[in-house]
Amino acid sequence: KHSSFNAEHTATGKYTVYHSVGHKDYQVQITPTSANRTAYIYSKANDNFVVYFYSVGSSPALSDTGFHFSITGRNY
């Protein structure tokens, strides 16, 4: 029911996504758009979440990527 979003690239592989949900009772589903990436939700707040993307392989490292996400949770 909330649709105000803005993503900020803060460092290599690190993004802060701002939203207008207004609480922390939600889950984030993320799909990287680059091959061989995995996501880690570092933190969640009332108005943002921070996600780290890592390369997949023998030497994982923070890596930039595009991504799709959805937020589900308490609506009322």
Explain what the structure shows.
The chain has 76 residues and is mainly β. It is 0% helix and 57% strand. The protein has no helices and six strands. The protein has a four-stranded antiparallel beta sheet, with no helix packed on it. A two-stranded antiparallel sheet has the order 3-6. The chain starts with a strand and ends with a strand.
Q: Layout of helices and strands, plus pairs?
A:
Elements: E1 5-11, E2 14-19, E3 26-32, E4 37-44, E5 48-55, E6 67-73
Antiparallel strand pairs: 1-2, 2-5, 3-6, 4-5
Quaternary form: single chain
**Straight-line N-to-C gap:** 9 Å
Low-confidence stretches: none
> DSSP helix count?
0
Gyration radius over CA:
13 Å
- How would you write the strand order of the largest sheet? 1-2-5-4
* Extended strand count: 6
Following the backbone from N to C, one meets helices and strands in this order, namely EEEEEE
Biggest sheet statistics:
4 strands, antiparallel
Q: Averaging pLDDT over every residue, what do you get?
A: 92
Shape assignment: elongated
Name the helicity range.
under 10%
Protein structure class: mainly beta
